[in-house]
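Could you join me in thinking about how sequence relates to backbone shape in a protein? We need material for that, and I hope you will provide a protein of your own picking. Once you have written the record down, we can walk along the chain together:

…
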Amino acid sequence: MSERIVAVLGAGTMGELVLAGLLRGGHPVTHTLATARRPERAEQLRATHGVRVLNNATAAGQADVLVIGVKPQDADALIREVAPYLRRGALVVSLCAGLTTDFFARRLPEGTPVVRVMTNTPALVGGAISAISPGAHATDAHVAQAEDLFRPLGAVIRVPEKQQDAVTAVSGSGPAYIYLFVEAMIEAGVLLGLPRQTAHELAVQTALGSATMLRDSGEHPAVLRAAVTSPAGTTAAALHELERHGMRAAVLDALEAARDRAIALAAQNP
């Protein structure tokens, strides 16, 4: 990947995370381009990352790999703008939630390889999970390029594209669910008499340690939960309340809503 020119078109929140991860992974700044809609944003990207910030057409004409980081509703106009300038054999990587590889293929020159990726914001600390799906014209080599691109952000997995909306619900939006739960733990700790900073430290480290155990032990979450739960103890009492309030059902409903929203985005952008 290091000898290829990579352009991030639409370096907003997720686009900049990819840009930063790429540079953190050793990709030469001289081979890294970005685009931004607002001049002040362009200057910020130059100052922060040292990359060249160009207009969309110029960046597309120079890049071997184009990362599409705009909002789904802006993707159609962007792709139609840059399609005439694409280099032969250039790889297009989409970060657009809900949009299929076919959406891009129908707007790009015939045979353009497209790879769809859903990553998440822990990319900022190298803790992302990026799910990668190839389009019709993407080979294993193209998928490997995408994996190289996203590996500095964290873990990478390959999934069939039909699973991408579910991936969006579980991990793309997932950090927000974790933050909400930890926020609730902190507020509960304050209500129970802890200083806010103490409650924050306790809740955050508990979440971090628990996630690390899940990752490193290989155990099912139910096994680790049972190990903490003594009969008639404090944990059992707390879990009883969570179940009584329908936590599992709420999580299922929430993820279904996120998946359905991803499907709706695709329907709005055929």
Remarks:
- The chain has a mean pLDDT of 95.
- Residues 206 and 236 are 17 Å apart (CA to CA).
- The beta strands are 6-9, 32-35, 52-53, 65-68, 91-94, 114-118, 128-134, 154-158.
- The first helix runs from residue 13 to 24.
